[in-house]
Amino acid sequence: MQFNSPPLLEVKDLCISYRKGGISSSIKGPVCAVKGVSFSVKPGETYAIVGESGSGKTSIAMSVIGFLRPLTGTIFFMNKNIWELDRSGLRRLRSNIQPVFQNSGASLNPRMSAGKIISEAFHAIVDEHEKEKALIDLLRSVGLDREILRRFPHELSGGQKQRLNIARALALKPRLIILDEPLSSQDLSTRAQLIHLLSSFKKAYLLSYILISHNLSLVRLISDRIAIMKQGVFIEEGATEQIINNPSNNYTKVLIEASNIKNVKTG
Amino acid sequence: MKGLINILHSDRSLQLGVIIISVICLFSILGPLLSPYHYNTQNLSESFQRPSWSHPLGTDFFGRDLLTRLMYGGRITLTVAFSATLFAVIIGTIVGLASGFIGGWLDRILMRLVDILLGFPKLFVILLLVGMGYTSLGLVVTFLALFSWMEIARIVRSDVWVAKEQLYVKSAEALGLRRRRIIFRHILPNITGPLIVSTVLLISSLILIESSLSFLGLGVQPPNASWGTILNEGRVDPVGAWWISVFSGIIIVTCVIGFNLIGDGLRNILDPKTGKKT
């Protein structure tokens, strides 16, 4: 991690709201999902956002990728305010921020073979031979066999689907990957393999991760800093070990006790 | 090919519908080539002959063989229905895609246009236009298409609305793919199911409208024959020469039922909520 370098991502006073209402709804006006959240991510850092369902974690992720316009606040990525860019500017910048979603199956087009899904990520490479080589190298790096290229998403296992998603995210050599509960729907052995994979890529490509999770044991294994989120606000933020060993907020204490991670050895 | 056979085996109504429509299409395409009679050559000495070995479905007032005319009429009716459906689907899909994907003011304008056009009684507006003298086959196809694309547009629009929020579309957007590629590679292929079903059902409704127009003398003009014009020719003597109205009526109804069965069958297969096959 480059502690002294300027932040790769800087989020300031982010407020995200969803408009509710309509004849049948009892709630009128906007509903604030995220209220005044600020944080920054340095190159090579893994920043985890932990909180219960509905706390606003995914809303932050969607806003950082450029899918959900915030009500107020700024998001600077590589020194550019992403919500002030025009469509083509945002499209160019997006190749540096890639998402990996929790639902590995839903993230893959069911009508496309694995080969087509991955080769789409190489759309900028014109030369077919070069594209093929890049594709094979990428597959090898995520531990997938060349043989899966002909298969469709429904013919792949959960682990293979998530590896494919990670491969697609890595194809464009991004600076930041947003991992939205990437291992929640995976079995234990697949989780361990994917954690190893993500850690190795972080070192190899100096990648930054934003890890969104409710699983503190996973977060402790791979993140450098943690933010604890509840009802749209960050209630505690700091270095991973500091938060886990000396939590100052009662909610954080409850989370740590519930996940029983103090007894788990870190790897 | 194997996949196609499996799909056919998975639903009875689809099987039956495909058999009916295949027979009618073969009957219309190959029939006139095999028939010893010409669809329009008059032979007044054989006027109003009952069904017999030489004329299996009888003859009309001008002594023309009814079976040959029905086979030939099938070509016209199906061509009109297929081409009008094709144009309607193209217009409806483009409008639905634009409205659903771009959204905002464009969506509001296009959907209000759809509401307005759906408010017109389709058959009466077409009757009015045709009654004003615009009676060529091309114009009939154009009018049918112009008043039939709205349902398709609505279906496409609502499916695009759902599809564009799917994670695989979001992932494609994150890759920096262009809008056109996202629409044609990621959204369109995933909404084809409901589109195919409504297309098939539209064909059957356009067959009925074309037949109604021709029956009223406003569609296909003599000496050309469509099933509607033949049905109309039976009005001369509906009791004495019953075979004209009965056989032309039967073929229209059978064809419409055939397309409806295919539509229902496809809906059963493509709609996961029916629990048959996704």
Structure description:
The complex is a heterodimer of chains A (267) and B (278). In chain A, 35% of the residues lie in helices and 25% in strands. Chain A has helices at residues 57-65, 87-94, 114-121, 128-141, 158-171, 188-205, 216-222, 240-245, 250-259; strands at residues 9-20, 29-41, 46-51, 72-77, 80-81, 97-100, 176-180, 208-213, 225-230, 233-239. Chain B is mainly alpha-helical and 278 residues long. Chain B is elongated and about 75 Å long. The relative contact order of chain B is 0.15. The model of chain B has no long low-confidence stretch (mean pLDDT 88). The interface between A and B is medium-sized, with 25 and 17 residues.
How many strands, which pairing sense, and closed or not: the largest β-sheet of chain A?
Answer: 6 strands, mixed
Reading off the top of the CATH hierarchy, the class of the largest domain in chain A is best stated as: Alpha Beta
Shape of chain B: elongated
The number of E-state strands of chain B comes to: 0
Distance between the termini of chain A: 18 Å
CATH fourth-tier homologous superfamily of the largest domain in chain A: P-loop containing nucleotide triphosphate hydrolases
Which labels suit this protein?
heterodimer, A: 267 residues, alpha/beta, 2 domains, 6-stranded mixed beta sheet, 35% helix, B: 278 residues, mainly alpha, MetI-like fold, 12 helices, 71% helix
SSE topology:
The complex is a heterodimer of chains A (267) and B (278).
Chain A: E1 9-20, E2 29-41, E3 46-51, H1 57-65, E4 72-77, E5 80-81, H2 87-94, E6 97-100, H3 114-121, H4 128-141, H5 158-171, E7 176-180, H6 188-205, E8 208-213, H7 216-222, E9 225-230, E10 233-239, H8 240-245, H9 250-259
Parallel strand pairs in A: 3-8, 3-9, 6-7, 7-8
Antiparallel strand pairs in A: 1-2, 1-4, 4-5, 9-10
Helix pairs in contact in A: 3-5, 4-5
Chain B: H1 2-9, H2 12-34, H3 66-102, H4 104-119, H5 122-131, H6 137-146, H7 149-163, H8 167-174, H9 179-187, H10 192-215, H11 227-233, H12 242-270
Helix pairs in contact in B: 2-3, 2-12, 3-4, 3-6, 3-7, 3-10, 3-11, 4-7, 5-6, 7-10, 8-9, 10-11, 10-12, 11-12
